[in-house]
Amino acid sequence: MLRALGVRSVLDLRQPAERQAHRAAIPPDLADLHVDHDGLEHAAFWAGYWDSGLVGTPLYYLPHLAALPERTVAVLSAMATAPAGGVLLHCAGGRDRTGLIAAILLRIAGVEDDAIVADYLESIANADALALGHGRPSGEPAVAALLAERGTTSEHAFRAFLAGLDVEALLARLPEAEAAALRTWRGALPAG
Questions:
Q1: How far apart are the C-alpha atoms of 42 and 142, rounded to whole Å?
Q2: Which residues contact 155 (CB under 8 A, 6 or more apart)?
Q3: Crossing angle for the helix pair 176-183 and 69-81, to the nearest 10 degrees
Q4: CATH for 89
Q5: Quick check: helix, strand or coil at residue 102?
Q6: Is residue 62 part of a domain?
Q7: Torsion angles phi and psi, residue 76, rounded to 5
Q8: Over the stretch 43-72, which tens digit does the pLDDT of each residue have?
C-alpha cells in the first residue's frame, strides 16, 4: 500500500525506548529511518515541560527549536537525504513531533499559515491517544484545559509558534544540497 502511494522511506521521530516498546512493521523494501527528535538526554530542557504537562502542547515547540535545534536539523537532513520517493513521517500520536516537522516542511514549501494551521488542527482533532501523564487526564480535552490555564488554545499557541518560526535559520544549518532538496520538496517543486 505505501509503495503504491510512492512512499520509499519511513522516518520515525520517536525516542529509542518508544521504538523498542512499539516496533512498527516496516515493509522490507522501504528504508526504515530513525531520528530521535526529542532528545530526552537534555534533562534540564525537558524538566519544566514534563513537570507541567506542556510537553504535549505547541508551547514547547519554539523553546525546543531554540535549545535543541540540532534535533530538528537532523530530521530535516534525514528527509533531504532519504532514498528517492515519498517519505512517511511519524511519531507516536502525530501531533507534536510530526506536527512540528510538518509545519516546518509546509513553511519551507511556501504554504500559507492559515493552511498550515488547518493541517495542524486536523491532526489534533484525532489525537485522543496523546497522554500527558503526571496525573493529568489525556487527550485533546486535557491539552485544551492545560492551555486555557495559560490563557491560550492549541490554535493560538500554534499560530504563535508559526509567528516565531525561522525556517531559514534551520536550513542554514544544513549542507546547501540538503537545503535545496527541502526547498524543492525533494525535486517535486520548481526551484526558486
A1: 26
A2: 117, 121
A3: 70
A4: 3.90.190
A5: helix
A6: yes
A7: -60, -40
A8: 999 998 988 888 889 999 999 999 999 999
- Helix axes of 154-164 and 97-108: crossing angle, nearest 10 degrees: 50
**CB-CB neighbours of 8 under 10 Å:** 17
Which is it for strands 31-34 and 7-12: parallel, antiparallel or unpaired? parallel
The secondary element (H helix, E strand) that includes residue 103 is helix 97-108
Please check whether residue 11 lies inside any domain of the structure.
yes
DSSP 24-88: ----TTSEEEE--SS-TT-HHHHHHHHHHTGGGSGGGHHHHHHH-HHHHHHHHHHHHHSPSSEEE
Burial class for 9, CB neighbours closer than 10 Å (0-12, 13-18, 19+): buried
The answer to whether 101 touches 37, Cβ cutoff 8 Å, is: yes
Indicate whether 188 belongs to any domain: no
- Which residue segment(s) compose the domain that 10 sits in? 3-183
Model-level pTM? Answer: 0.89
- 113: number of Cβ within 10 Å: 15
Whether residue 108 contacts residue 167, with contact meaning beta carbons closer than 8 Å, is answered with yes
Q: How many domains does the chain have?
A: 1
- In sequence order, the 6+-apart residues with CB closer than 8 A to the CB of 45 are 39, 63, 64, 67, 68
Residue-wise pLDDT for 20-31, tens only, equals 888 878 888 899
CB 157 within 8 A of CB 59: yes
